[in-house]
Design goal:
By secondary structure, the protein is α/β, with parallel strands linked by helices. It is built from nine helices and ten strands. Helix 6 packs parallel to helix 7. The longest helix is centred in the last third of the chain and has 21 residues. The radius of gyration is 22 Å and the shape is globular.
Length: about 280
């Protein structure tokens, strides 16, 4: 959102709170009345006007109870990039489950499938961050979200811990084989924060086939780095392939401009390549 939008929201929240109101964000945030940056830059709010205390509850306890009762009756829809197409409501087939202490969205095929295999889908910088993800529209042109400041609070290592905990939980359920699409914050589609030595470590220690979906305009994974990856992985026995989408920009597989034919074509091609790669190797 643009800076003046944030300021306008902040002014409204301050006025409401001065009048005894209670403001919180989406279903997953803490209902403590503190308006964090994540709440302020999101597009989901729940506002409770000032209420009188009762002999059993203070005013804020009444407001928190109303929030809990309301959210117990509704489903929460993630904030999304304004250029992204949302699927119809009846296409969401999964449920949220706790796997080894991590809230995880789990979806299984309606037909028969191998019960010892799983695909762990790691969704860019918009997940894994304990109620403080990057807002879905924060990276749009004209937005004033401080990505670098956010990254200082969320380095890659803790996110990796979350993924490992999920893997350990799935292993306890009998899952033995995994595929792992990742986006931006991880690997596979428009990778970020990689160093040259990371490629060497992967080649030395990993036996996992690697697919990278890259694009033309990407300062996080520029052409010289992509060419170096091709050179280093040329003889990688488990398997390596890199796709390239001309005209597309970093993030194109999850938040492209669907009105841009090149970006839309790149996203569709990357999706097809990813599915075929998983079918081949999983």
């Amino acid at each position: 959102m643009k800076c003046f939008e944030i300021l306008g929201r902040l002014v409204g929240i301050v006025i409401l709170q001065e009048a005894g109101g209670f403001v919180t964000g989406s279903k997953d945030v803490l209902y403590d009345g503190i308006v964090t940056e994540a709440i302020l830059t999101d597009r989901r709010y729940l506002v409770i006007r000032g209420v009188a205390e009762t002999p059993e509850e203070s005013s804020i306890e009444v407001q928190k109870r109303i929030v809990r009762e309301f959210y117990d009756t509704v489903e929460d829809t993630p904030s999304t990039n304004k250029n992204q197409e949302l699927p119809a409501a009846d296409t969401f087939q999964g449920t949220y489950e706790e796997i080894n202490g991590i809230k995880t969205y789990v979806a299984t095929p309606k037909t028969d499938y191998p019960k010892n295999k799983a695909i762990i889908y790691v969704t860019d910088v918009f997940d894994l961050f304990k109620g403080d993800p990057v807002p879905g529209d924060a990276l749009n042109p004209g937005e004033c979200f401080d990505r670098d400041q956010w990254l200082t609070k969320h380095p890659p290592k803790p996110a990796g811990v979350c993924v490992r905990k999920v893997i350990e939980g799935l292993q306890a359920q009998g899952i033995t084989t995994y595929g792992g699409p990742g986006f931006c914050y991880g690997v596979v589609s428009h990778p970020s924060f990689l160093k040259h030595e990371d490629l060497d470590v992967y080649i030395e220690k990993s036996k996992v086939p690697l697919l990278i979906n890259s694009c033309e305009f990407d300062t996080r994974f520029p052409k010289p780095f992509a060419d170096l990856a091709d050179e280093k992985f040329a003889n990688f026995a488990p398997g390596y392939h890199r796709t390239y989408s001309a005209g597309a920009t970093h993030g194109f597989t999850v938040r492209c401009d669907l009105n841009n034919p090149k970006e839309k074509a790149g996203r569709e091609a990357a999706f097809k390549a990813s599915v075929e790669w998983l079918i081949k190797h999983l």
